[in-house]
Amino acid sequence: MWYIILILLTVIYGLISIYIPTAISGFLGVYIIQPLLWIILAIIVFLIARREGLNIWSFKKIRKWEIGKTPFQGAILIGGFHVSLLVIIGLLIGFGNSPYSHTPLYLLINTLYLGSALIAIELSRSYLIKKGTSNKKYLNLTIILIAILFLIISIPFAQYTSLDASNPAGIAKFIGEYLIPGLVMGLFASYLAYLGGALPAIGYMGIVQGFTWYSPYLPAGDWAVVALIKTFAPAIGFLLIQSSIQLSISNKKIKRKKFKDPALPWLGVAFVCTLLIFFSFGYFGTQPSVIYSGSMRPNLEIGDVVFVSDINLEEIKVGDIIQFKTENMILPIVHRVYEINEEDGNLFFITKGDDNDNPDIDPVIPQNIIGKVTFTIPKIGWISIGIKEMLKNIGIKI
After folding, report:
1. 53-68 pLDDT, tens digit each
2. Closest CA to 249 of 74, 61, 64, 68
3. Which of 116, 124, 304, 335 is catalytic?
4. pTM of the full predicted structure?
5. Which of 243, 360, 362, 384 is catalytic?
6. Is 58 a residue of the active site?
7. Domains contained in the chain, CATH given
8. Whole-angstrom distance, CA of residue 45 vs CA of residue 123
9. Is 335 a catalytic residue?
10. 164 labelled catalytic
11. Active-site residue, from 17, 295, 310, 344
12. Contact at 8 Å (CB) between 398 and 388?
């Protein structure tokens, strides 16, 4: 009866994200009807699992559990590790006030709101994983698809509709801030549910979400830093659990088949993708850029990707290749520094494309310099060019 759970999840998501905000807005819709919907779902999932003889609440797939005495304790410890990283980041970059109310009444209301959704979702996750992993052949696929499912329904529908195809930076931010960290956390929660049922997943997600809802102060840094922690912490948690499983197996003098890692490759992919997105936004001091013109031939060809690093004006010298903005061009330009001049104490740079006969007409002022080209990878930018051309041909401007 797994399809009933999928239908209920879809219906509840539609009601919460689309119908209730427009038809029953306010306290009644958010704090009364929504918790009731989640409670009803939790009861239905529990009854279906009980009818089918499935234990979805708590169990041990691994006999010996090194991180804590039980999967639940292990999940709590890793959730605490996750929160501790957020606190450390807050100490380094500063804290801001929480957007949630912390009066006794609203603490109670938020507990009902958060707890009902958390229990219903993790019971549903555990049930679907239990049903889907009965055949180990589809273990990886099941965990991945279930993680994606709960990621999709964790994001309000309005956020999807607010995405603008003409704003690739906004889309990349949405992917980096919500999709990838949410996917990694979902994969880890699904892995915990696979190993120990709903209780460990509730423990981990409850600790992390509880910190967000109940802490009066939250890290106030850039979204990229917080999102990176949300990606990094569950990935480390997975490695800790996996290493403990291997340790418990190796300590036994019985020949056993190596435990299959159902989520590690995908956690790794998601983590790397997050780093790439943050890297693309320049959060590590360097960002990639695609060459779209032939003005720098033969040194730079169309489709090459250059890596542009931050640089002090005093370090720029004649012959350096720099990237800069202009008023007349939408995309930044990559040209070589031809001359450096100073007038009334202000520096300005004359640039020239290697394949151009004459220097650029307009001098480059310091405020328009993005950085210096430090590294080049040939041709891989054609992927980006091809995608943009394809979107352009179907009427989407980016």
Report:
1. 999 998 877 766 767 7
2. 64
3. 335
4. 0.66
5. 360
6. no
7. 2-280 (no CATH), 288-393 (2.10.109.10)
8. 7
9. yes
10. no
11. 295
12. yes
